[in-house]
Amino acid sequence: MRGIHDLGGLPAGPVDQAEHEHGYWEKRIDGIRLLLADKKRRLITVDEMRRGIESLGKDVYDKLSYYECWTASVTGVMLEKGVITTDELGRKMAEVEERDKARFEGG
Amino acid sequence: MSQHTHDHGHDHRHPPQPDIDSEPMGYYQIMGAALGELLIEKGVITADELRATIELIDSKSPEGGAKVVARAWTDREYKKRLLENGNATVDELGIEMPDTHLVVVENTDTVHNVIVCTLCSCYPRMLLGLPPDWYKAHAYRSRVVHEPRAVLGEFGTELPDDTEIRVHDSTADMRYLVLPRRPDGTEDMSEKELVELVTRDCMIGVTLPKAL
Amino acid sequence: MARFASGDKVLVRKAYPPGHVRTPWYIRGKSGVIERICGEFGNPEELAYGRDGTPKQTLYRVRFAQNEVWDGYAENPKDTVDIEIYEHWLEPVA
């Protein structure tokens, strides 16, 4: 099977040269990944992260932005390794979402 | 689980600045924030390490690569070392590349080099900062490897028909930097002035530097 | 020790396993010339699953003629593409 990420030579349209400034959330997952991969921790290799991205499925890979893919993959590897649990993640995500919603209420 | 406590090492204001936080967080932003907070709570990483790493990411920009190129244009021995041993030679200018090996590829009057990563987004981040969106996108990764002139044309770069184009597909542990040709008419410019001519895109190889 | 030397002609194996592979699809089955030996590196096919990447693999930069890589290559026939390929993906060409 040709991987969803293995793009060399496939037909594609013009190169869209639009660029965006990286947001904090993008640099945060980049930073998290660098720390998890460093010599002190060695909790993820770049190849583990790539494998996670390559395993997202074509629909997801094509739809998600670059750092959304990174987030999905790094989080998945941390779950696989038991560094975090699904239950912890679910509760923490709910907490983050509530906190975020509160920003838009009662302003 | 104890109440989350903010580490105020990073800029975290309430209420948010409307310019940067005007949209509710998306699913993956929530996931990333939650992952970061869990890792900090568990002591896997510290808030200070994360802040410092983001600072490090922010500190890398194409200016690093431009300084290397300008030095190579003005110092023949430096250029020779750069082409033979990229890592040690950029280190002379204070740029460390601890995890990857730098291969500098030189444009000449007959050869033009261009960099891509068809499999993901490998890029000399320590020299150029984070890659532009188009470098990571499907169209560039699919096409530049089999129709480089057509893609360069979209960037406004026209090369003579007999120029040999070398595409470098960064598939593994090497990272590539294009050493462009020094533009004609820059003979009187200082190294510092030359730095200004060297753009990110000419170090990727999709454009050529121009005398201002 | 490295199996190939700079200048050797090599063929990229035609193999299509699942998993995490750093040999691009488009270059499998094509032949090129060793441009340089890059050194020995952990095997990404192993590292991708959290193993230690041993035995290390010699990594090469291999140069391919574009008009041999792509059917009907429309640009300069002298154009080339250089790709990093691990030794276990390469076979000698007589």
Describe the structure.
Chain A is mainly alpha-helical. Chain A has 5 helices and no strands. Chain A has one domain: Nitrile hydratase, beta subunit (Cyclin A, domain 1), CATH 1.10.472. Chain A has helices at residues 24-37, 46-54, 58-63, 66-80, 86-102. The longest helix of chain A is centred in the last third of the chain and has 17 residues, at 86-102. Chain A is globular. Chain A starts with 23 loop residues before the first helix and ends in a 5-residue tail after the last helix. With 212 residues, chain B is α/β, with parallel strands linked by helices. Chain B has helices at 18-21, 27-41, 47-59, 62-74, 76-84, 86-91, 125-128, 133-136, 138-143, 148-154, 191-195, 200-204, and strands at 101-106, 111-116, 164-169, 174-179. The radius of gyration of chain B is 21 Å and the shape is globular. The termini of chain B are far apart. The model of chain C has no long low-confidence stretch (mean pLDDT 97). Chain C has helices at 44-47, 66-69, and strands spanning 9-12, 31-41, 57-65, 80-86, 90-92. Chain C has a single domain, classed as Roll (SH3 type barrels), CATH 2.30.30.50. The longest helix of chain C has 4 residues, at 44-47.
Concise structural overview:
Chain A is built from 5 helices and no strands. Chain A is mostly helical. Chain C is about 10% helix and about 35% strand.
SSE diagram, text form:
The complex is a heterotrimer of chains A (107), B (212) and C (94).
Chain A: H1 24-37, H2 46-54, H3 58-63, H4 66-80, H5 86-102
Chain B: H1 18-21, H2 27-41, H3 47-59, H4 62-74, H5 76-84, H6 86-91, E1 101-106, E2 111-116, H7 125-128, H8 133-136, H9 138-143, H10 148-154, E3 164-169, E4 174-179, H11 191-195, H12 200-204
Parallel strand pairs in B: 1-4, 2-3
Helix pairs in contact in B: 4-5
Chain C: E1 9-12, E2 31-41, H1 44-47, E3 57-65, H2 66-69, E4 80-86, E5 90-92
Antiparallel strand pairs in C: 1-2, 1-5, 2-3, 3-4
